[in-house]
Design a protein that fits this description.
8-stranded antiparallel sheet, Jelly Rolls, single chain, elongated, 2 helices, 32 strands
Length: 430
């Protein structure tokens, strides 16, 4: 719907930057300036991200339609990897988003990193973050304006960095939307590095939503006969020799049986980072419990060593107990209760450097390891559900009897944070 020369506020925009400047919804498509390129992989370990070179003044602009965000709530989110951070001049910005009608109060939006901190500017009506950014690291950053409370928020990696009340509202009604540069104050304000999975919604997201956007790596519900990811990174699953069932724990599920029957997701960047916290959770309904791999973590999609990092992180012991493997100096596995066949059981494993690993069965904690620093694979990782593939017999097993899992699976989730006991309980009691 159009009013005058500008577009009414869009409900949702998403630029994946998977070798394209197009909006997923084909409404706000970008045009590159000075030859921006792409590099693979992007944050999610697949696809690509938009690579911008500050020295070449590279950026993207969306000139038509004009995005109208005046007197509204909105959320901008981005995964960013600063190659360098420029801080010589107070106004040498590492720019992410911009829209500028004119350089007067509340009419020039500039969303940038300034002095290595997130900066959310309406021009003279601005919020400065607290966390200092470091080059050559991935960050999730959310810039949120709540019109109802006139509050600006900045979140870094899912957690509130700073907020400011009595702000705005933003009042600019013209000007191109820019990515990687702004029109505010100086020309030397280009981003240097990668931008990925850039999203806009026409409302103020709450803290829980932002935390999920930053830390929910993948969520395969298996509903609608699909391996589509319902998480924010769109890491869709693949698999072989599987079938769908209407008898899932929550709506539909997946059935695995026979040899080489598995589901797989790849591109798990945070899980491949040393000591980064994580949580994996899934509903299982096995037809046999005398051994079998439920989840296998590996640096290669075939799950194998040598020349690969691999670990069966969840499976059955020979006695039918659930077990999770740790990768610490003592390498002591954690086991839970014996699982019943042909019955649904919720299983989750969490890790943090302060708490070590914890095993939960049906929302109840069964054990934990010592605190330790997880020596990860150092590359985007792959999780295979139902099989260890070529990793059987060569990867560290602990008490897990590696082999094919037989039965049903449902509601598979991976988080790049350690969920609390209350959050695990909520997943186990849908």
């Amino acid at each position: 719907m159009w009013t005058g020369s500008y577009c009414q506020t869009a409900v949702r925009i998403f630029w994946s930057f998977d070798n394209t400047l197009q909006d997923l919804y084909n409404n706000f498509n970008g045009v590159g300036s000075n030859g921006p390129t792409y590099t693979s992989p992007g944050y999610n370990g697949a696809g690509a991200c938009l690579w911008l070179n500050q020295a070449s003044s590279q950026s993207v602009s969306i000139t038509s339609p004009i995005l109208n965000i005046t007197y509204t709530s909105f959320t901008f989110e981005v995964w960013l990897y600063p190659n360098t951070l420029y801080n010589g001049n107070p106004y040498t910005d590492n720019s992410i988003f911009g829209q500028c009608q004119q350089q007067v109060v509340d009419q020039c939006l500039h969303i940038v990193i300034r002095s290595q901190k997130a900066y959310f500017g309406f021009f003279g009506d601005d919020l400065v973050g607290n966390q200092a950014f470091t080059p050559k690291q991935w960050y999730h950053v959310a810039y949120i304006y709540d019109y109802s409370t006139q509050t600006q928020f900045v979140y870094v990696n899912g957690y509130l960095d700073n907020s400011r009340s009595s702000a705005g509202p933003y009042q600019g009604i013209s000007g191109a939307l820019t990515i990687g540069t702004t029109s505010a104050q100086v020309s030397n304000n280009f981003f240097d590095g990668c931008l990925d999975s850039v999203a806009y919604v026409s409302r103020a997201k709450n803290a829980s939503e932002v935390l999920d956007d930053a830390t929910l790596v993948a969520y395969l519900s298996f509903d609608s006969n699909s391996l589509l990811d319902s998480g924010p990174l769109l890491i869709n699953g693949t698999g072989t020799n599987y079938s769908y069932t209407s008898s899932g724990r929550v709506n539909a599920g997946i059935s695995l049986s026979g040899n080489a029957s598995y589901i797989q997701i790849t591109g798990l960047t945070r899980i491949g980072t040393n000591s980064w916290p994580y949580t994996v959770a899934v509903w299982i309904n096995p037809t046999k419990i005398s051994g079998g791999t439920i989840m296998h973590l590996s640096s290669l999609i075939d799950g194998a060593q040598p020349n690969a990092w691999c670990l069966p992180i969840m499976g059955f012991t020979s006695m039918g107990q659930i077990a999770i493997n740790s990768w610490n100096s003592s390498n002591v596995p954690i086991t839970g209760s014996i699982v019943q066949v042909n019955s649904w059981t919720h299983v989750a494993a969490t890790y943090s450097s302060s708490n070590g690993e914890r095993l939960y069965v049906n929302g109840i904690q069964y054990g934990s390891s010592v605190a330790y620093n997880f020596a990860a694979g150092g590359v985007p990782m792959t999780i295979t559900l139902g099989s260890s593939l070529l990793g059987t017999g060569v990867c560290n097993t602990g008490t897990i009897q590696m082999g094919q899992y037989n039965g049903l699976l449902d509601e598979f989730r991976v988080y790049a944070r350690e969920l609390s006991a209350a959050e695990i309980s909520a997943l186990a009691n849908p």
